[in-house]
Every structure is written in structure tokens, then in C-alpha cells.
């Protein structure tokens, strides 16, 4: 739009400038014709330029008076006879010296040979041309006429004409620039007002993009305002289409949430119902082992396997039930928990379960306290230690490090085992995710330990992550810091800072 207006302004301005140029030159040509007529007419007086040339009297009369007064100064009137000296020159005011001289009369100033040569070379008889004579003189409009057998050069200064052209060009340019500025400002205002509904549509889409849609119940209430859904406009069509898409996505999210709730409820109900028969199976297996009757070795082995698998199944059911409760958003206890004491207890339990590993503690001088469910947070550390014990060979070193960074408490479990496969790391906290091919397994697991870690930490408004390479795996848990607890006495807080095996 601005480009089109610019081109249009340049065309109009150029046309006006060309028309003015033509008009001014036509006026100058008319003046030259009038001057030629005055020179070619009969003389009316005896005053003239000294010399035998018959044009003396005519030239003197032409520059002294006329129908409109004295001839304009700065003009050029030169007669160049064949074989004679030039007559005339540059018209200039005459200095009044005698009573015969009248105010307003003019006289001639001779032109230099260079100027005369320029006149002869630039224009021919019965032609007109714009000539620059150099020196301090302006550009001239020159006409050559044949009068009484002599060549007469008539010139009028273009100074005023050129000044007029420059003034008009500057004025036209200012008008064009001003018009473009006004048009640009007005166009920007119109475009801004026209696109304002699109801004509201984009704002709605931005708010939707910031919603958490991957889990839980999602209330997709954001919609484009009705005023921006007019199907008669392009923006309205976009807004209406976005609303239809949001309706479709909202229905899909509601269906997904309903399905998830059904699955969670089923898992919770099944886990709850399985606890009783599993307890019965374990009880009967224990009773069979305690029987006074002699049991064959094969049957005793089978009973031991039944009891072992019943325990494993019970642990799996308990984990599933815990995850179902966490997914349902069940409130957790909100107590002050000393993570240093929790790390000591969990490491002691891990040492008892895995005496073949080296267990180390790296604790700060002051307690690190968070607000949360102590039992669940203990389970987080215990699961991380169990994961390290299960997936590293005997002789590996596992270090539990507790500290704080800014407003967060940090727990790290570091082992020097074989590491985790790179393709497993992104899904390590998913349920039943396994990376057994890269990490040694001395015992089976349910595949839910790290999922429980992630769920418990998330329920405490924290974060958990993992970094792994061959020779080092680091699990990092970050939790919001709580108020500092009362510092326990030496008897209440056992020292366990040296490596234990």
C-alpha cells in the first residue's frame, strides 16, 4: 500500500514538474520572440552603442524601453556579423551620469571570447537551447535569429525559472512525504484495529498452550469470545474453528480422564481385594512349613517358592495401591521431616539388605528440613537405594548426599555401576520401565519403584531427575525447604559418616 502511494505520488509530482518546466520554457520562448521582434523593427531614436554597426540604435532602443518598460537586466543580446566585431552583450543597468540618461535605462557589458565561442557552438540559427556560459553567469535560454542578414543571439536567464522548479519540487516532495506519513499512520491504525480480534484469538490459543494437558482432570474452559467468531470475516472464521477444535479436544480430554479414573479405580479395587487372598496364601505356606510332619524336599521347595512369590505379589499390590492413591490426589501428611536423619535410617536399612555394597553418607553440618509425609519420603530414598543395589554388582559404592541449594533441599543417590542405557533414561520413571540389559540384576523388582519415587516427589511439589554414564549414575531429588527443626542431641542423632560395609 505504501509502495503504491509512493509510486503514485512520484508520478503525479513528476508530471506536475514536467508541466511547469514546459510552461516556463514556453513563456521564456515567447519573451525571446517578443525581444526579436523589437530588435528587428525600425529604430525610433538616435542613441546607440558606439560603432558603425547598423544595429546600434535598435539594440539601444530595445534595452531602454518597450511596451512593458525597460528590457530586463541579465539578458543577452549579441549580434555577430560576418567578419566584424560582436555588438551587444549582457544587459545591465546604466549608471546615470548626464541629464540625457533616464533612470531605468540599461547598457551592455561585453561577453568574453569564451562565452561567444560557447554561443556559436551550442546553438544554430532558428534554434533554441539551454546554455551554461560558465563564470558566474546563470544558465540561459538562448535563441538565434537571422535579422537583416546578421546572426543575432538572444538569451534570457533561467535563474528564476530554475528556482521556481526547485521550489515546486521541494514543495511536492514535502507533500508526498507528508502524505505517505499520514497514510502510513492511518494504515497502521486501521490494520491494528482490524487485527485486534486476531490478537484475542492468539491470546486464547496461548492460554490453552500453557495448560497442563498430559495428566489429571483438565478443565478446558478457554474459548474465543463470541464477538470474534463472526463467520462473515476471516478472523471470525479462525476464531470459530479454534472454538470447535477446543470443544473437540475438551471432549477427548474428558473421555481420557474418565477412562483413567476407571483404570485407577479398578487398580485400587483390585489391589485392595488381592491383599486378603495373598495374605491367606502366605499364611498357608508358612503353616505348611511349620507342620510337624515330614515334607518331601520337592514340596518344601515349592512351598518356599509359593511364599516368596506371594510376598513379591503383595509388594506389587501395595505399590499399585499407593500409586492409585497418589494419582487420585489423596492428601499427604504435612510434618517437618529431617532429611539427614531420614538418609541415615534408609542407608542403614540398605546396608542390612545389601552387605556386598559399600554404603557412604555425605551429610551437612546442619539438618535439612522439609514439610511432607515422612513415611513416603523415606520410601523415596529407600527405593532409590534399592534401585542402586539391584542394578549394580556387588562391590559397587553407593553414596547418599544431602544438602540444599537456594530454597530447595537436595538428596542425591550416586553409584559407580555400569550406568543406564541412553534410550532408557527418558522413560526411567515410567511404570514398569526396565533397563536390565545394561545394569546387573541380582534380584527381581516390580518395576514400580522409580514410578513411586516420581509420584511421591511430585506430590510434594518437588522434582526428580537422573544423569547416567558408564561408571556413574546420579539420581537427584529436589524438595521445597521447610522451617529448621530443633537440633537433636548427640544421643538422638547417631553418627554415620564413615563408609560402612
Shape label? rod-shaped
Distance between the termini: 82 Å
Number of domains: 3
- In total, the number of strands is 13
What Rg is obtained from the alpha carbons, in whole angstroms? 53 Å
Strand arrangement within the widest β-sheet reads 3-2-1-6-5-4
- Helix and strand sequence: HHEEEHEEEHHHEHEEHEEHEE
Strand coverage percent: 15-25%
- Major beta sheet summary: 6 strands, antiparallel
Q: Which regions have little confidence, pLDDT < 50, spanning 5+ residues?
A: 44-53, 65-70, 437-442, 492-501
What class, by secondary structure content?
alpha+beta
Which descriptors would you attach to this protein?
501 residues; alpha+beta; Helix Hairpins; Heat Shock Protein 90; 3 domains; six-stranded antiparallel sheet; 9 helices; membrane; transmembrane helix; two-component regulatory system; transmembrane; calcium ion binding
Provide a descriptive summary of the structure in words.
The chain has 501 residues and is an alpha+beta fold. The chain has 3 domains: 164 residues; 118 residues, Helix Hairpins (Orthogonal Bundle), CATH 1.10.287; 146 residues, Heat Shock Protein 90, CATH 3.30.565.10. The protein has 9 helices and 13 strands. The strands form 3 sheets. Strands 3-2-1-6-5-4 form a 6-stranded antiparallel β-sheet, with helices on both faces. A hairpin with a 2-residue loop joins β5 and β6. The radius of gyration is 53 Å and the shape is rod-shaped. The C terminus is likely disordered.
Amino acid at each position: 500500500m505504501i509502495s503504491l502511494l509512493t509510486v503514485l505520488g512520484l508520478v503525479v509530482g513528476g508530471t506536475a514538474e514536467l508541466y511547469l518546466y514546459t510552461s516556463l520554457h514556453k513563456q521564456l520562448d515567447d519573451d525571446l520572440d517578443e525581444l526579436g521582434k523589437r530588435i528587428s523593427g525600425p529604430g525610433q531614436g538616435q542613441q546607440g552603442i558606439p560603432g558603425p554597426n547598423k544595429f546600434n540604435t535598435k539594440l539601444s532602443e530595445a534595452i531602454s524601453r518597450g511596451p512593458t518598460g525597460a528590457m530586463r537586466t541579465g539578458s543577452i543580446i549579441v549580434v555577430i556579423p560576418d567578419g566584424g566585431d560582436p555588438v551587444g552583450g549582457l544587459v545591465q543597468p546604466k549608471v546615470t551620469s548626464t541629464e540625457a540618461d533616464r533612470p531605468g535605462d540599461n547598457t551592455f557589458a561585453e561577453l568574453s571570447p569564451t562565452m561567444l565561442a560557447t554561443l556559436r557552438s551550442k546553438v544554430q540559427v532558428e534554434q533554441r537551447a539551454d546554455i551554461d556560459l560558465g563564470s558566474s553567469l546563470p544558465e540561459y535560454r538562448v535563441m538565434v535569429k537571422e535579422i537583416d542578414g546578421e546572426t543575432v543571439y538572444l538569451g534570457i536567464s533561467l535563474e528564476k525559472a530554475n528556482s521556481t522548479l526547485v521550489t515546486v519540487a521541494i514543495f511536492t516532495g514535502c507533500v508526498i512525504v507528508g502524505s505517505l506519513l499520514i497514510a502510513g499512520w492511518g494504515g497502521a491504525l486501521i490494520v491494528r484495529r482490524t487485527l485486534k480480534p486476531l490478537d484475542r484469538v492468539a491470546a486464547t490459543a496461548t492460554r490453552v498452550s500453557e495448560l497442563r494437558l498430559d495428566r489429571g482432570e483438565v478443565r478446558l474452559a478457554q474459548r474465543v469470545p463470541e464477538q470474534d467468531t463472526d463467520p462473515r470475516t476471516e478472523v471470525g472464521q479462525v476464531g470459530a474453528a479454534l472454538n470447535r477444535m477446543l470443544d473437540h479436544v475438551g471432549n477427548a480430554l474428558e473421555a481420557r480422564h474418565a477412562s483413567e479414573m476407571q483404570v485407577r479405580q479398578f487398580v485400587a479395587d483390585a489391589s485392595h481385594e488381592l491383599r486378603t487372598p495373598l495374605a491367606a496364601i502366605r499364611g498357608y505356606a508358612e503353616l505348611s512349613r511349620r507342620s510337624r510332619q515330614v515334607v518331601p524336599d520337592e514340596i518344601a521347595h515349592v512351598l518356599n517358592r509359593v511364599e516368596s512369590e506371594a510376598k513379591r505379589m503383595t509388594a506389587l499390590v501395595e505399590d499399585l495401591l499407593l500409586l492409585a492413591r497418589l494419582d487420585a490426589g489423596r492428601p499427604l501428611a504435612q510434618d517437618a521431616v529431617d532429611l539427614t536423619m531420614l538418609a541415615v535410617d534408609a542407608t542403614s536399612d540398605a546396608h542390612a539388605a545389601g552387605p556386598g555394597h559399600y554404603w557412604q553418607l555425605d551429610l551437612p553440618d546442619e539438618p535439612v528440613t522439609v514439610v511432607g509425609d515422612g513415611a513416603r519420603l523415606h520410601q523415596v530414598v529407600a527405593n532409590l537405594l534399592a534401585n542402586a543395589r539391584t542394578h549394580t554388582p556387588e562391590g559397587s559404592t553407593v553414596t547418599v548426599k544431602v544438602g540444599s541449594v537456594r530454597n530447595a533441599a537436595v538428596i542425591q543417590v550416586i553409584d559407580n555401576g555400569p550406568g543406564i542405557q541412553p534410550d532408557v533414561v527418558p522413560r526411567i520413571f515410567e511404570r514398569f520401565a526396565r533397563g536390565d540389559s545394561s545394569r546387573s540384576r541380582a534380584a527381581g523388582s516390580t518395576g514400580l519403584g522409580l514410578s513411586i519415587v516420581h509420584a511421591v516427589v511430585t506430590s510434594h511439589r518437588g522434582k526428580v531427575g537422573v544423569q547416567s554414564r558408564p561408571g556413574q549414575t546420579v539420581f537427584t531429588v529436589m524438595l521445597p525447604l521447610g522451617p529448621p527443626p530443633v537440633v537433636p542431641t548427640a544421643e538422638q542423632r547417631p553418627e554415620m559418616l564413615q563408609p560402612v560395609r
